[in-house]
Each structure stands twice: as C-alpha cells, then as structure tokens.
C-alpha cells in the first residue's frame, strides 16, 4: 500500500503503527504556573476525604514497626496529544500494607466504574488510567493518590488535548482510510508552498481562579484569574447569567503577567450573586464560577456619653474610681489625660479599665496629693470624637486628739460659737435647732477658765 501511494523510494518512512502512536503521545514539561497549580491540587487531595465505595483492597494486620507509608517507584508523566487519540497514564506505587488507589481529574474523583476511563492495577504495583479516544474535555490534570494507615502520597500528570485542524492534515485519519504522511526529509527540504501547514490549538485552561468572596458594601472587590490557551483566549464575565459590562464601577484589566482582573468599586448590594468567567478560543472554552456575598454596610454612630465623669473627693491614702459610660458604632477608642499629660498605660497603682458595654473606669489605688487635678476622658471612632472632664480632690485625713487631753473651760456666751474650743468649732453643738438652748443661758456670775 505504501509503495503504491508514495512510490518505492519513499516507502521506508513507514514501519509499524506503534512508533507512530508513541510519537503522537508526546511528553512535555509543564510551566512553573502549572506546577504550582498541580502542587496545590495534591496538597488539598491528601487532606480531603475520598469516596471509598469502590475499594477492593482491605488492609491486613500489619505490625506498626513493619508498616511503610506509600511511595512512588515511578511517577506519572505529562502528555500532549491530539483530539481523538488514546492516552494512558502509568505509575508504580509500593507500601505496607498494600495502599488503596484513587484517581482524580482536576481535583474531582474518578469512579472506578467510569465508562470513559479504564482503571487497572497490576500485582507489581503498576497502576494505569486509560482512555481510548480523548476529547477536548479530557484536557486537565490527572492525579493518583495512594493511601494506607501509614500515610498518603500523590502525583499528577498533565494532559494537553489539542484540537484537530480540519483544513490541514489530521494526525489521525478517519476510520477506514489509511494515514498517509510525506517523508520527513521531503517536508522539510522541498519548500512546497502548496502544502498546508498544521496549526496548533490549545483549549483554554485556568491556571489561577479565585474562590467565593465576602466583601463589605462600599469597599473594593477584586477577582483575579490566569488562563492559558492557543490562540490567546478571550475572557468575558457574567453575573447570574447576565453579561457584566464595563462602567465607572466595574473595570476589567489585564496585567503584563497575563492575570485578568474584574474590579468592582464601590461594591453595592446589586453586585451580589454568582459570577462566571468564560474563556473562549478556537479550540473550545472553559469557565469557573464563584459567589460574591455583599455584607451590609455598618451604620456609623459618633460616641455619646451615657454617664459622664463626676467631680470626686477622697481622703489621702484611700482608693478612688473615676467612672463613666460611652457608646458608639463602631466601639470607640478611649484616651485618658490628667491635666495635659496623657495616661498611655496602666501601672500597679493607676489602671484603666473598659468592658463591652461601654463602661470605662480609671482606678487609683492609694490616692495622694499628686493625684489631685483635672482628668479628661476622650472617646473616638470613625464617626467622631467626644470628651468629658472632672476634678479629683485629695484632702488630708483629720485625726482626733486623744481623749485624755484635759478639756478646756470656756466662758459661756449666748453666741452660736460658744462651743468653740481649742479643737475647733463643734458644728453640731453650734447649730442646735432650739431657739434658747438651756446650756447656753447666761449666768449672773462669769466663770473663767484657768488659761484665760
């Protein structure tokens, strides 16, 4: 067949079908961005519950000292293929006891009973995932996770499915027609301008996508994503299925590093809902969705004193409390001052206290003359500031003289100050309600004390 189609001199380019298929399943190296995405997928899967309904492996009784966590003797590789071609991911895993195996695509577990994928496991620990005809939807990251009581481990292989260019040569011929390819030397050197050139298309793939967001009303919201694909995909945004149009509050930007951003400022209650980002190019499309929750804007209220500071007096050496109550939204910050000096921190003797109900207290243990003066408390929040001032007086404690002191005799008098003695004025005696107290009536004879 080859000789008839190409001639005897060109038939040497055909061997058997297997080398052709090996060449098509081309291995490639993933980019650093894709590697970070793969690492994040593996990290989450190793810490997430899995569906064990299809498990056929049962752990045996293995002594703890003989147990061994799973490890890969051969890891998955990355492949780049054309649409419609078969592909097989293969690795080899070991561990004691024998690990259970789970397969995932883009973080979602693949059922062992899947009709599209064939999952196999050999006695030597070789595990494989095979599909006979790849579609554009098969493009993605395939992860295998091995688990036993000693631990979990995973590795990922990237599959890039390229769309077939109908105008050029297809890498796989339609069924029933042989695949014909020109000699490699002739295609490079002949310079045939009429020969169609194979264009390579890559379906969009999101390397970075945000999760659900909660933003306070009036604030800024930013949604960042990064997408790969060939040709460069076009991005569009939808809110609850309706297109998001750029305006003064909604901006769509693309940075030099390829990160696309949807920026909303200020956020309103109308911006809440399900956002979908759709990336489209000639090879297909891809999308992701997230929910934006808009929290109600907190009403700001300036601070208000419910109870103000009161002027206070205290005896020297006694404790004293300067108290008040202030409310505001959000809860205000409290500042204390004595005269023009700020009280920034508490000490063992002077401490500042505040609770969740707005009660504020300045506590002084063992007041002294130096503590006397004007005290100011200020409350401040985003809506305003308010202050209150009160005076603290500290007086010397009065000590009565010993009762053994000899009482002094005084000259009686009709005056209210007749009770004045060397110890001072006896106020109670001086202001008796009786009009003519009997003990203050005049005697005809004056009596003088020995000291007068």
From TrEMBL:
<comment type="similarity">
    <text>Belongs to the myotilin/palladin family.</text>
</comment>
<dbReference type="GO" id="GO:0001725">
    <property type="term" value="C:stress fiber"/>
</dbReference>
<dbReference type="GO" id="GO:0002102">
    <property type="term" value="C:podosome"/>
</dbReference>
<dbReference type="GO" id="GO:0005925">
    <property type="term" value="C:focal adhesion"/>
</dbReference>
<dbReference type="InterPro" id="IPR036179">
    <property type="entry name" value="Ig-like_dom_sf"/>
</dbReference>
<keyword id="KW-0597">Phosphoprotein</keyword>
<feature type="domain" description="Ig-like">
    <location>
        <begin position="70"/>
        <end position="154"/>
    </location>
</feature>
<dbReference type="GO" id="GO:0030426">
    <property type="term" value="C:growth cone"/>
</dbReference>
<keyword id="KW-0965">Cell junction</keyword>
<dbReference type="GO" id="GO:0030018">
    <property type="term" value="C:Z disc"/>
</dbReference>
<keyword id="KW-0966">Cell projection</keyword>
<keyword id="KW-1015">Disulfide bond</keyword>
<comment type="subunit">
    <text>Interacts with EPS8. Interacts with LASP1. Interacts with VASP. Interacts with ACTN. Interacts with SORBS2. Interacts with PFN1. Interacts with LPP. Interacts with SPIN90. Interacts with SRC. Interacts with EZR. Interacts with RAI14.</text>
</comment>
<dbReference type="GO" id="GO:0003779">
    <property type="term" value="F:actin binding"/>
</dbReference>
<dbReference type="InterPro" id="IPR007110">
    <property type="entry name" value="Ig-like_dom"/>
</dbReference>
<dbReference type="GO" id="GO:0001726">
    <property type="term" value="C:ruffle"/>
</dbReference>
<dbReference type="GO" id="GO:0004672">
    <property type="term" value="F:protein kinase activity"/>
</dbReference>
<keyword id="KW-0009">Actin-binding</keyword>
<dbReference type="GO" id="GO:0030027">
    <property type="term" value="C:lamellipodium"/>
</dbReference>
<dbReference type="Pfam" id="PF07679">
    <property type="entry name" value="I-set"/>
</dbReference>
<feature type="domain" description="Ig-like">
    <location>
        <begin position="302"/>
        <end position="393"/>
    </location>
</feature>
<protein>
    <recommendedName>
        <fullName>Palladin</fullName>
    </recommendedName>
</protein>
<keyword id="KW-0393">Immunoglobulin domain</keyword>
<keyword id="KW-0963">Cytoplasm</keyword>
<dbReference type="InterPro" id="IPR003599">
    <property type="entry name" value="Ig_sub"/>
</dbReference>
<dbReference type="InterPro" id="IPR003598">
    <property type="entry name" value="Ig_sub2"/>
</dbReference>
<feature type="region of interest" description="Disordered">
    <location>
        <begin position="165"/>
        <end position="194"/>
    </location>
</feature>
<keyword id="KW-0206">Cytoskeleton</keyword>
<feature type="compositionally biased region" description="Low complexity">
    <location>
        <begin position="167"/>
        <end position="177"/>
    </location>
</feature>
<feature type="domain" description="Ig-like">
    <location>
        <begin position="204"/>
        <end position="295"/>
    </location>
</feature>
<dbReference type="InterPro" id="IPR013783">
    <property type="entry name" value="Ig-like_fold"/>
</dbReference>
<keyword id="KW-0677">Repeat</keyword>
<dbReference type="GO" id="GO:0030036">
    <property type="term" value="P:actin cytoskeleton organization"/>
</dbReference>
<dbReference type="InterPro" id="IPR013098">
    <property type="entry name" value="Ig_I-set"/>
</dbReference>
<dbReference type="GO" id="GO:0016477">
    <property type="term" value="P:cell migration"/>
</dbReference>
<dbReference type="InterPro" id="IPR033017">
    <property type="entry name" value="Palladin_C"/>
</dbReference>
């Amino acid at each position: 067949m080859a000789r008839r189609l190409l001639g005897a001199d060109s038939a040497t380019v055909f061997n058997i079908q297997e080398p052709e298929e090996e060449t098509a399943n081309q291995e490639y190296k993933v980019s650093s961005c894709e590697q970070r995405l793969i690492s994040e997928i593996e990290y989450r899967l190793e810490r997430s519950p899995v569906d064990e309904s299809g498990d056929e492996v049962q752990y045996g009784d293995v002594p703890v000292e003989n147990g061994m966590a799973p490890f890969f003797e051969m890891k998955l590789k990355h492949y780049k293929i054309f649409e419609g071609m078969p592909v097989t991911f293969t690795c080899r895993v070991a561990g004691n006891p024998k690990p259970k195996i789970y397969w995932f695509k883009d973080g979602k577990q693949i059922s062992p009973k899947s009709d599209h994928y064939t999952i196999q496991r050999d006695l030597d620990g070789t595990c494989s995932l095979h599909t006979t005809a790849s579609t554009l939807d098969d493009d993605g990251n395939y992860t295998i996770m091995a688990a036993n009581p000693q631990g979990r481990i995973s590795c990922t292989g990237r599959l890039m499915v390229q769309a077939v260019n109908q105008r050029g040569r297809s890498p796989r011929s339609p069924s029933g027609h042989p695949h014909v390819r020109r000699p490699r030397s002739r295609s490079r050197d002949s310079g045939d301008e009429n020969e169609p050139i194979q264009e390579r298309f890559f379906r969009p793939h999101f390397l970075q996508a945000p999760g659900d967001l909660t933003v306070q009303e009036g604030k800024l919201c930013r949604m960042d994503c990064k997408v790969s694909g060939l040709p460069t995909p076009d991005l569009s945004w939808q809110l609850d299925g309706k297109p998001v149009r750029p305006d003064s509050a909604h901006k769509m930007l693309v940075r030099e590093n390829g990160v696309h951003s949807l920026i909303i400022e200020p956020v309103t209650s109308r911006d809440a809902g399900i956002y979908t980002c759709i990336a489209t190019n000639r090879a297909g499309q891809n999308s992701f969705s997230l929910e934006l929750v808009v929290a109600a804007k907190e009403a700001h209220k300036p601070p208000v004193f419910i109870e103000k500071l009161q002027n206070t007096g205290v005896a020297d050496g006694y404790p004293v409390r300067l108290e008040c109550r202030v409310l505001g939204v959000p809860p205000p910050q409290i500042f204390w001052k004595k005269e023009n000096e700020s009280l920034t921190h508490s000490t063992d003797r002077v401490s500042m206290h505040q609770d969740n109900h707005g009660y504020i207290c300045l506590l002084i243990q063992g007041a002294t003359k130096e503590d006397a003066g004007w005290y100011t408390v200020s409350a401040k929040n985003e809506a305003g500031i308010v202050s209150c001032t009160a005076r603290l007086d500290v007086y010397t404690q009065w000590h009565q003289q010993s009762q053994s002191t000899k009482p002094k005799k005084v000259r009686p008098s009709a005056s209210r100050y007749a009770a004045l003695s060397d110890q001072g004025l006896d106020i109670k005696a001086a202001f008796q309600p009786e009009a003519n107290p009997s003990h203050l009536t005049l005697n005809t004879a004056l009596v003088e004390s020995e000291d007068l």
